[in-house]
Amino acid sequence: MFLLCLIPLFLLLPFYIIYKPPHMLVRYFQYRWPNVLWHVRIASSGEKVVALTIDDGPSEYTEEIMEILKANGATATFFIIGSQVEGRKETLRKLVRAGNELGNHAMHDEPSRALSDDALIAQINSVQRLIDQAYAAVDVASPPRYFRPGSGFFHDRMLKVVHRLGYRLVLGSVYPHDAQIPYWRVNARHILSMLRPGSIIICHDRRIWTVPMLRKVLPEMRRKGYRVVTISELLREEKA
What we know:
Blueprint: H1 2-19, H2 23-32, E1 36-37, E2 49-57, H3 62-71, E3 77-80, H4 89-97, E4 101-104, H5 117-137, E5 146-147, H6 156-164, E6 168-170, H7 184-194, E7 200-204, H8 210-223, E8 227-229, H9 231-236
Parallel strand pairs: 1-6, 2-3, 2-7, 2-8, 3-4, 5-6
Helix pairs in contact: 3-8, 4-5, 7-8
């Protein structure tokens, strides 16, 4: 009977590890794929700093998200989908003016790993043109180039293409699966429970539950002494 009771636990364990990967596993991923950014090692004497990344924008919620960031002294890296930009170019400019940065999330909301090399290159280049236009319009120098694949999965061929184009592939270490889980309180608890210096948090624009989640999470992170920054700012804190 005891063994029968353990069976559901063993069946659920892989899903739990995907949902809340232990830091040791994240460190292994960073070791196994050093060209992919999962988290950043911060000097032990350094401050408590994390990067916030927000995927799938711009959307009707982006400017409200930007105001919440501003109210909490935070910035973020927004990984934008090119097909979302039409009619929202000014939103991208506002994000840049407010000290946020723009990353590349391909042209469409689809698994990037399924694309051919030529299709992936075309999508990345199309989105980069939109990013460059946003920075040029506000007379701000473009940041280093970051790419996050659609659906978050990659393969070695993709890594070679991304590297050849001059990008760093960015994933993360704290992901509440908010693209699928529409409960902001659950997602907020997940983020706060997984925080550690050097974390890269993955959240999603284009969902109505993201705004209340950030209203809860950002002040709480601030209360805990964390500074919330872009990917580029976090990398400046990296342990030598």
